[in-house]
Design goal:
Chain lengths: 370, 324
Amino acid sequence: MKSKILTIKNKILTGFCFAIFSASLVSCGGGGSAGGSDSTASASSDDITIIGAGSSFDNPLFSKQFSEYNKANGLKVNYQSIGSGAGIAQLTARTVDFGASDAPMNGKQDSAVSGPVVHIPITAGAVAIAYNLPDVKDTLQFTPDVLANIFLGKITKWNDPRIAAINKGVKLPATGIVIAHRSDGSGTTNIFTTYLARVSEDWNKTVGKGSSVAWPVGLGGKGSEGVGGLVKQTPGAIGYIELAYAVQNNMPYARIQNKAGNFISPSIPAVSAAANIRIPADTKVSLTNTDAADGYPISGFSWVLIYKEQKYGDRSSDRATRLVRLIQWMIHDGQQYSSALTYAPLSPAAVSAGDAVLKTVTYDGKPILQ
Amino acid sequence: MENGMVTRSDIPLRVITSSPEAILKAKKRLRLSFRQIRRENIFNKTLMIMGLVMIILVVGILLTLIVQSMPSIKALGLKYIWGRTWNPVEDIYGAWPFLLGTLLTSFLALTISIPFSIAVAIFLGEYHATGWIPNFLKNAVELIAAVPSVIYGFWGLAVLVPMVRTFEGHVGVSPMGVGIFSSSLILAIMIIPYAASLGRSMISMVPSHLKEAAYGLGATRWEVIRSVVLPYTKSGLFAGILLSLGRALGETMAVTMVIGNSSAIPKSIFAPGNTMASVIANEFTEADKPVYLSALIELGLVLFLVTVVINMIGKRVIDRFTND
């Protein structure tokens, strides 16, 4: 008898070892889909949690909006700030209910998704050109041409006549220009390079636009804090940075000449003004080099992305309705939280374009919003 | 013995012919020893499984890297390794600047750290093995290894980079502060403990009769270290240095923060550069095209292979040292 018990013990022990082993293998292999199972599994009753992922730029605003929405409507939203590209990848893999991105989906991303995805503008932000010139007290001004030439490495000294010509009366030092850019792929880079590609043929040909580009010159810093740190530490540095970060850290930033010829300082009203233009039906528009006379030219939308047809996998109609209602609230009532967090509230044109897009979202072919 | 049952045939004939009590006793003893054997077997199997898991993991990682980098290998071929341009916009990927950056920072860091780590090892292993100061030093060195690398990154950015910038201003190169040199300095500090602690334990294991014989011949302390301790421990010291190098090759966070992240080929050691690990860390989250993502994974594969090659060369060298 005793030996029989022992054999059983023996088998249990070996089995246990195998269990640990296989569990570790499963958790290794299944890492990618782990997020997906809980988004689809909990698709019933009241304890729905909407899951979103994407842009880190949107994260502070979303945190505030989702917490307020939860207080009012009891809906939980779990937002993972993993970067725009990763957010789109998660939406493509259908592991999240919505994605958020600072750049509209490109052709390759569009062809990877299994159904049409709609873009809803959710907020707008600006990219400020921050610099570090300790002896210069006046705010510098840049024309698009000068800005492009600085970042192309063609203007290398602060007292270059081209900079001096547009900054009359400012005593510019003879120090070299140190360029700071983002080293990680980011929506900020996308907005800035899209702008430069629009205003400078030279930039468009040699560098192009994207969330990571091959920079002709300069130092890379990881994240806004990386670029901010480089600019703050290095005398003579210039870098592009999210407006909110530059404001919070009291960094001087330049006025940029817009298409209408006015020198505009980045601010919330100037970004909202930039977004008050004719917006196409798919809302995939870049606000850079805006036509608006008082608009800041280096601004851009951030979008929430959802599938146009919400019936996929085992999603319930309840879940789809809640998601669409949430987004509707975000572009209307949710906008009141923008200004305090240095985001630009959506312009009336953007809100109505977003509403029109939301009306096209369907569940099993029927529109969700009546 | 089958199914773990004790059968009559397992009991020696000598016992069977004696009294029934003796038979019972013998059965009991046998069961006990069977239990011990079984335990032995279980332990043996567990060890084997754990070992196998390790092998499966390494092979699995290698296979994953190869499979995932197939799109990039197909699109770019061998040009990937020697290509000098890394341009995600045009879908052109060349790993050469990053390969160079990784090797440059790692070997520079190693060169800077070796004098320190060997000195610490000799001090702790030979000169002052006991007492509170050596103990304190030993703990301090081990603590260097325990500090998270992001802390080194912040420290580097806040303290080291401004110092390097001032230094660069004095030597007359463009004072940027960040770059290959700064990241090598940070790396050097981070990798000191690996060579130092292995070296210390090797040096303290040198048989005392060898040293005593040398002293007996009238050798000074320096002569004993040079002609007895160091030759005796060279393979161990080298193994420690190899361990440091491995750490330096893969270090990501601290390097990313101070290297300047430029994809151009560094023109001097003060120029900004980039390493393979930091490119992956920087660009992975926003890699929005399949080939781009695959090129980043291939970068991981190259890093994996570089580490393997360097380790293999190191093993060769250690073997040669030990055979002498």
